[in-house]
Task: inverse folding
């Protein structure tokens, strides 16, 4: 009889190993599932039953809270914990072990943030920085630049007044999207935002019935894309002018966005992932196993460019060439 928890799994975060052959997925139960992606695409008759290959080769508990923050840096999987960042060696995660209970972090950085009855102890978003550092968006509504080598906060970015959903970095520029309805753009060397974008103040983007929250942001050298309750908007990064409304006919909020070649990949608060061009034309509208998409992860090195899509339900869709649902793997909890 299956564990009843398996019917209520939500995939909230994902990260690929440096070799991009293994996938880590964090769930709402505080567990990490490790999948061997390489074996799914090997034609080996000795691999065993096909359904076993779609299950994680390892599943272990990190804490009792939802794992919303996860990223990889060097040889480590970094996970946001309770007022801390934990590092797990990818070599240990992919090696066969007798018991998943043996999986332990190889280092822990205590963020030493002030707590307010537990409400400020979370790490809500995490991206890797340069020189073995990380940017951690925490429950105090701030972004902290953490030196992982020395285990201390180098700089704190203050400007948001609510939960931070998403971050993106390019060079010395950092952007963050928040529940407060703003996108802050930071010089990574200064503690205050250099620019603040309020998408809900744009009449073409505003959707009052969905709220002003911004769930996703990404940027490159020239463009910034963000959305949430407001429609997805394309901004010219230097002038900070809103250039285009994207997915104007979609009625869902926006939870994920990333650039891929000449396209923008968007995961919405519904059962779809879109590919759209900078012109606004939609090239792909892909149905997903998840009724709501919360996590999107993309291979960058592999020629196949697999896209991994997770959300409500324990299934993770693996999309070949980023556009076609090819296989489905399932998180245990």
Result:
């Amino acid at each position: 009889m299956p564990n009843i928890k398996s019917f209520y799994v939500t995939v909230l975060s994902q990260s690929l190993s440096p070799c991009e052959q293994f996938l880590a997925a964090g769930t709402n139960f505080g567990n990490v599932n490790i999948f061997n992606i390489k074996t799914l695409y090997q034609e080996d008759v000795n691999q065993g039953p096909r359904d076993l290959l779609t299950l994680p080769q390892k599943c272990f508990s990190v804490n009792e809270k939802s794992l919303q923050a996860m990223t990889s840096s060097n040889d480590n999987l970094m996970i946001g914990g309770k007022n801390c960042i934990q590092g797990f060696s990818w070599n240990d995660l992919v090696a066969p072990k007798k018991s998943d209970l043996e999986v332990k972090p190889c280092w822990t950085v205590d963020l030493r943030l002030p707590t307010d009855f537990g409400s400020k102890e979370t790490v809500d978003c995490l991206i890797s920085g340069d020189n073995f550092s990380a940017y951690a968006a925490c429950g105090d509504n701030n972004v902290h630049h953490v030196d992982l080598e020395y285990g201390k906060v180098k700089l704190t970015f203050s400007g948001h007044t609510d939960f931070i959903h998403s971050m993106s970095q390019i060079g010395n520029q950092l952007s963050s999207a928040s529940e407060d309805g703003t996108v802050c753009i930071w010089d990574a060397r200064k503690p205050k935002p250099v620019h603040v974008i309020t998408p809900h103040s744009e009449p073409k983007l505003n959707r009052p019935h969905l709220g002003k929250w911004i769930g996703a942001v990404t940027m490159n050298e020239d463009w910034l894309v963000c959305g949430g309750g407001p429609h997805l908007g394309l901004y010219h990064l230097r002038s900070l002018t809103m250039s285009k409304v994207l997915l104007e006919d979609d009625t869902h909020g926006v939870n994920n966005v990333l650039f891929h070649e000449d396209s923008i990949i968007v995961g919405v608060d519904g059962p779809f992932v879109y590919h759209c061009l900078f012109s606004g034309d939609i090239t792909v509208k892909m149905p997903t196993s998840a009724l709501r998409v919360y996590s999107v992860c993309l291979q960058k090195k592999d020629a196949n460019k697999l896209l991994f899509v997770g959300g409500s339900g324990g299934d993770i869709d693996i999309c070949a060439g980023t556009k076609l649902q090819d296989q489905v793997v399932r998180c245990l909890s």
Q: What stands out?
A: The first helix runs from residue 37 to 40. DSSP finds three helices and 28 strands in the chain. The chain has a mean pLDDT of 91.
